[in-house]
Amino acid sequence: VGLGLAPFALGVIADIWNFQYGILFLGVVTALSCVLLRDIGEI
């Protein structure tokens, strides 16, 4: 998630639900991107 997308995504999710869900969502996205980047790094 780029530097501009993370605050935007957190703000959108916070407007819809609350900040707890936004932080949880960004944590899941960060964890998944770390796993994907680890696998892509072997290419």
UniProtKB/TrEMBL annotation:
Stretches that traverse the bilayer: 19-37
Protein name per UniProt: Uncharacterized protein
Keywords, sorted A to Z: Membrane, Transmembrane, Transmembrane helix
